[in-house]
Amino acid sequence: MKYEQLFKPLQLNQLTIRNRIMSTAHAEVYAENNRTTERYVRYYEEKAKGGVGLCICGGSSPVSRDQPQQWWSAVDLTDDRAIPHLGNLAEAVHRHGAKIMIQATHMGRRNAYWGGDWPHLVSPSGIREPVHRGTAKIIEKHEIERIIADFAKAAIRIREAGLDGMEISCAHQHLVDQFWSPRTNHRSDEYGGSLENRLRFGVQVFEAVREAVGREFAVGMRMCGDEFHPDGLSHDDLKEIAQAMDETGLIDFISVVGSGADTHNTLANCMPPMALPPEPFIDLAAGIKSVVNVPVMHAQGIRDPMQAERVLSEGLIDLVGMTRGLIADPHMVNKMREGRETEIRQCVGANYCIDRQYLGQDVLCVQNAATSRERFMPHQIERTTGPVRKVVVVGAGPAGCEAARVSAERGHQVVLFEKSDAVGGQINLAAKAPQRDQMAGIVRWFDLELKRLQVDVRLNTAADAHSILAEKPDIVVMASGGRPGITENPDWGFDDRLAVSSWDVLSGHVPVKSNVLVYDVMGQHAGTGTADFASNKGARVEIVTPEPKVADDVGGTTFPIFYRRMYGQGIMMTPNYWLTRVYAEDDKIIAVLTNEYTEEHEEREVDQLIIENGIIPNDELYWELKSKSCNHGMTELDPLYDHQPQPCLSDIPDGEFALFRVGDCISMHNIHGAIYDSLRIAKDF
User: Fold this and answer.
1) What span, in angstroms and rounded, lies between the C-alpha atoms of 478 and 656?
2) In which order are the strands placed within the sheet that holds 572-575?
3) Tens digit of pLDDT for each residue in 168-196?
4) What is the pTM for the complete model shown?
5) Helices 141-160 and 195-213: crossing angle, nearest 10°?
């Protein structure tokens, strides 16, 4: 077998895990009223259908009421009302042969007090946590006893619900490892000082859980491999802790994550984006494994099947977490087993999923719009039982590629017009920025799928009304994207060639000069990526934005990567300034900036002004075709938002066509939004 190690079963206490591929605990933000209701269940059931061996759900599920649940819609384990909902989850996953556990925790200071019951947070020594800004009191002994009992009660609920086990979080600076770490534990009583004392609370938690659920119920812990803080726990410290915990005989497995997570910079390590190398912390997991006897699990940056097989065959770990890979493609395990690796929609490490979570939004995949929408969006497209139609798609960006792919999967005859020499659209520009090249993986998958489905892709072909109508289409999808929004403001000097767009520079059409100002209106990846690109070419760069900070709309695990690079390269960051006028003076460009708050003006003398101002829709062809279409180009919103077919699709008169537009051809959306537009329209063609 090609993946001999990956498909080898593993015995975990009384459980037989059918393969070595797992989905590790993460905050999904799908729970309704903090319960695992239908959306939550279907998300995990899809992974089970797709062949995964083990899922650990419910990242940061609280056991105590003094852990507020407003962050991430956490699954509530604090009372018996959780049991029937968890039971539905267990039944759905078991139905397809997979195993399911849940992560239980108390987050201590790693939270915010506002919301829920407005508790006073607790921690070993009352030290504030930077990421969540949680101020906490010093935990008292009666509270320690209460929380230990809460862990035991939660364990009973998990067992009674029919789940296969529980993972207790001792990572990411939750309460247990807050006691472990000298960074957060300055106590002088029996819970502080020596390692034995600092381990005491965690040991007592596991003892109480074992007493509650017995020896045969699977109980494990998640722990960090190195906090990466000079005043925190080193890898050697954590190896010693792992060995000590293993020797208690209380745990059945250890799930290892690399890096602490209590600062923005260390948090970016925990869900490694594409800027970090593959499997950046496998050595930490292997180090833990070298000193313990129980199986060791590890995720973080393992996205490729061969990569996963290698880390197992080398004995570095026992189970491999491919969590974001399963978010991108929950059927990846079956595709691996069946030799269909080229059909796997492989995670590119964009971290759209986890960045949304850190904004309190539901986890979505940048390239798979069906993930977490399983109730009404298909991962596997069924062939139509109606008429086979001719579908013409204009534009091969993400919206156009998805419209063409889904239409072809439905069994229709598809023609895809693209005026450039490659599919991918703006993703090809995004992949030009330093350490963002893996974005091209989205394009590569679309390209392979379009070829597999035998879509008639016509590159270097700019569609017009005549060429579209010559195809005698039944359906036309306008996915023609947009163009840089730099022309929206005449005071920016674009018409006088005083400014260029980020597209001009990233595409290589305009060379980077020596002294550059990047003006970023949007605060997203494009502006910061362009500044990084220009600096990487040797330019002296300042990035100016009217936003409160540079990259203000870039997520919590991604902006620290940009900041590392910008500070390292000496890029000057200037927030809170608007670009109000541009003029030429001799051979220099003068940019006039206005402070958002004082309205005072400043000037910059530069060689080149690069502007990122989003996009303007390329909708001219849509308007030309609108009156010729049987539906007048109208997408009816109620059926669209209710996930129902567009009414016009039921009766397209002979010789006529229905017209839809998707993605940036309507207005600027992101990659996910463009793909979702097309999936929810084309699934019913």
Assistant:
1) 16
2) 500-501, 608-612, 515-520, 540-545, 572-575
3) 999 999 999 999 999 999 999 999 999 99
4) 0.96
5) 40
